[in-house]
Amino acid sequence: MIEKQGKLSVTLVISALAVFIGYVINFLLTPYVTDRLGIEIYGFVSIAKNIVGYAGIVTIALTAFVVRFISVSYHKGNYEEAKSYYSSSIAASIVLSGSIFLIAAIIILKLEYLLNIPENSVVSIKILFLIVFLTFVVTTMTTPFSAAAFIKNKLDIVGIINILGYIADAGVLILLFSIFKPNVFFVGLGSLATAVVTLIGNYAITKVTTKELQFDSKTVSFQKVKDMMGNGIWTSLNQLGNVLNSGLDLVISNLMLTGVQTGQIAVAQTINAMFSTLYATVFQPFQPQLLKVYASGNVKNFTNELEKTMKICGMFSNIAFAGFTSLGMLYYKLWLPAQDTKTLYWLTFIAVSLSITAGIMQPVYYISTLTLKNKLPCLLTIISGFINVVVMYFMLKYTNIGPSIVVATTTIIMLCMNLFFNPIYGAHCLKISPRFFYKIIVRHIFSAFIMVVVFIGIEKIIKPGNWGMLIFSALIMTIVGAILHTVIMNNPKNIIKLIRK
After folding, report:
1. Is residue 63 scored above 70 in pLDDT?
2. pLDDT > 70: what percent of the chain?
3. Burial of residue 491, with CB atoms counted within 10 A of its CB: 0-12 exposed, 13-18 middle, 19 or more buried
4. In terms of Cα–Cα distance, which of 275, 439, 279, 273 is closest to 359?
5. Rounded distance between C-alpha atoms, residue 235 and residue 240, angstroms
6. Which of 208-212, 423-427, 481-485 has the lowest mean pLDDT?
7. Using CA atoms, how far apart are residues 438 and 421, in angstroms rounded to an integer?
8. Distance (Å) of CA 286 to CA 73, 106, 204, 273, 282
9. What's the rounded Cα separation, in Å, for the pair 400 and 394?
10. Measured between alpha carbons, how far is 50 from 110 in angstroms, rounded to an integer?
11. For residue 430, which of 357, 366, 361, 362 has the smallest C-alpha distance?
């Protein structure tokens, strides 16, 4: 038990460090790009990544269940079956991602007819899109190799690889921006460097830790691909719903709002993306254990592990949300003083409000993957996505609310999904009472409210006015928030156990 807790702690620390380094790169890059190229051009970086997300709807049908099928077969000792899933997923990844890249390259040639692009930036933005799609190919190819880290619980090494990837990103950007005239596609090259390092690192983990998993063309099976995609098709449909819920925000903004407003939404989504990365990174170290406990068939042990995971993930999301609520305005004033900081703050606040439920729901989302019961969540996500797009379109066309409605519709719809559907459906999949989840969620929301009030009080007392005091305030808030959340979410007996661990 001590060894397992130590492993988990190390993985969390390394993963958090990777997120921090990724954040620092975004932190330093965003004002540099917006000041030199304009906030309108910066918006196209996010648009390119969102459009790649549309392409990902196809490949996620395969990649969503690759790790699950390989890992379950491996844990059962059926190495030949695991090897067949492994080889089949590699072959399918090459075919799918390669085909999408070729189609995208043809479309990108006429990109100026699809998006509102400034005339003097058409070539640069086309190159950016090509590089981002190439990055998509490399990322898709990484998925089969990532199974080894889950099988052998080497996610601490994955965290180190991610750190190296972010360093490669920073190195490429510093080199290009210092030698050449600033160009928007440099950002794409930095992301590509990260993807390549991640691919090489995960391949190395596979070769060292799971020698049973070797690519063999003779074991490539169409049936195995069908097995993975048969379950994954629902994840693809779910991704379609996610695209409709938030992925179309910048495309619609590009067509219906000004370039400055689109850029402002892009900046807000950059911060929101860091929040999402935080949730995913904190949750990732728990996945191998959840998968292993679920495979054992002991529901009681699984729900105990699930409850612990939800509380920890919720702590990080609450601290992040309450921290931004209290310090966000000062943060933008110091970070992007040349921009409309008030608008940026409120757009970001609306977007990250989703974190109140999104963080604690990460383990709950994983239930449908483990139980292979993801049809209903996908259908509801698609329906909510269509509602989001329709409401957003009419509100932009017939009202003067402006860019805030773009992020508000997504936040409101997803909050409702997280509060009224996901807990009930998760309980249904596990055949337990929904009260299990709602007891945790109610305490979690109360924790978020208390944290916001306390953090605002800390900000009023310290009154930070520069980066040094902002960081100091954030550190104090993090410590206080962790203590508050632990006390609110646990009974006295569990608190004593946590302190001992």
Report:
1. no
2. 90
3. exposed
4. 279
5. 9
6. 208-212
7. 11
8. 19, 41, 22, 21, 8
9. 11
10. 18
11. 366
- 53 or 204, greater pLDDT: 204
CA distance 465 to 398: 40
Which structure tokens are listed for 466? 């520069």
425 to 298, 356, 451, 453: CA distances (angstroms): 19, 19, 29, 32
Are the C-beta atoms of residues 435 and 446 closer than 8 Å to each other? no
Average pLDDT, the chain: 83
Residues 243 and 249: their CA atoms lie apart, in Å, by 9
- The pair of structure tokens assigned to 203 is 């391949």
Q: What is the pTM of this model?
A: 0.71
pLDDT for 501: 61
Q: Which two tokens stand for residue 496?
A: 């004593």
Q: Which residues of 94-132 are buried (b: 16+ CB within 10 A; e: fewer)?
A: eebbeebbeebeeebeebbeebebeeebeebbbbbbbbb
Determine the 3-state secondary structure of 125 from DSSP. Answer: helix
